[in-house]
Design goal:
By secondary structure, this protein is an alpha+beta fold. Helix content is 22%, strand content 31%. The protein has a 6-stranded mixed beta sheet. A 4-stranded antiparallel beta sheet has the order 4-9-6-7, with no helix packed on it. The protein is globular and about 50 Å long.
Length: 215
């Protein structure tokens, strides 16, 4: 009976965490190529101008002036989004509508960005609807070094949201960025945290009982 109770708690915990951590972004690692999202930039397979983007395995294959490095996702040959910044304010490098938002829930919008050139760093802003979640400026001293951004957003009464990533640097020289491994997940509620605590407590009790039974 005690074992069944422990298994039951573990199953509830697993379901709660699994639901809370589901990534709602489609093609979050760009492994499916140029699908599942939109952009105000122009998609090209070879870059020669600003306000263009591509989905590639190496930025240098898209523009020979850029640095050569791989995507952030573990494993060889993965894809990433690379963009040559714009001189027009407010354009979305990446945009996706999430149609399955739960009201009154806090979500984390996160992702990895890197500079692809060593001149003029991009200033990447993450937005949920009209709410700015903050900005991140990847280093131009070490192009190809990924920086992590994460910002919280509460859905309120919303049942959907448009997520956007905007480059606020309007300098046309340099300002080349890579984006990869995006995520939009619900933050576990207090009940889930309580379950985590309960699971730990049950595990501790079971361990103590087993220890006593072997003495």
């Amino acid at each position: 009976m005690r074992i069944c109770q422990s298994v039951g708690v573990a199953l509830i915990l697993f379901c709660a965490i699994g639901t809370a951590q589901a990534n709602l972004i489609t093609n979050a690692d760009f492994s499916a190529g140029n699908t599942g999202f939109t952009s105000d930039y122009t998609f090209v397979t070879s870059n020669i101008a600003i306000t263009e983007y591509g989905v590639v395995t190496d930025p240098q294959t898209w523009n020979t002036n850029l640095f050569s490095f791989g995507d952030h996702t573990p494993g060889p040959g993965g894809l990433m989004l690379v963009a040559n910044g714009s001189s027009t304010a407010g354009l979305s490098v990446w945009r996706q509508t999430i149609a399955t938002v739960t009201p009154n829930t806090t979500y984390l919008f996160s992702g990895f960005v890197a500079s692809a050139f060593n001149q003029t760093a991009p200033v990447m802003e993450f937005l949920a609807g009209t709410t700015s979640l903050g900005t991140i400026t990847p280093s131009i001293a070490t192009p190809g070094t990924y920086a992590f951004f994460s910002g919280a957003w509460n859905s309120g009464s919303n049942t959907s949201v448009v997520l956007r990533i905007v480059d606020n640097n309007l300098e046309p020289q340099g300002n080349d960025v890579v984006i990869d491994d995006l995520s939009f997940v619900a933050v576990p509620e207090a009940s889930t945290v309580s379950l985590i605590g309960l699971s730990g407590f049950v595990g501790m009790v079971m361990l103590r009982r087993r220890s006593r039974s072997t003495n």
